[in-house]
User: Fold this.
Amino acid sequence: MDFDLEDGIAILDRTPKVIRTWLQGLPDPWVFNNDGGESWSPFDVLGHFTHGERTDRIPRAEIILSEDQNKTFEPFDRWAQFQDSQGKSLDELLDTFEALRAKNLEKLRGFDLQPSDYERTGIHPDLGTVTLKQLLATWVAHDLNHLGQIAEVMARQYRNAVGPRQAYIDILTPQPK
Assistant:
């Protein structure tokens, strides 16, 4: 499937609603538990989404679309949510994410992108040259990836409780990367 802006926006627009519907009002263990180690809880994933709305896709798209000669992106701090989310409630993060995403989708639509714009490039600090099309497609895939991550960490809270049925529920066993 090739990237299509309106198809992508259909996913991006739903992500905050999916997370709100999924997490709001749940008992704390569902929201704050993780798999141990450096794994993320659903709350951490939400914080990561929120940080990304401030610092990642739209700021990088603006760099690509600018007339500036320097097209190098700022590095993204993949762990910033642990600092940024401290002391915040789930509802506060949900509201912030929803507002930032709506603002960013409005900006994205306001770019009035033409077919040639999708091939314009920027420089990712780790990956090198990326096109606007790749950046936007990654935004959509990134959302879906982290929604899957939320499902996985939540399902694994019941890993031991399901007993021998574990063998039939793939999500309960972390898959090698």
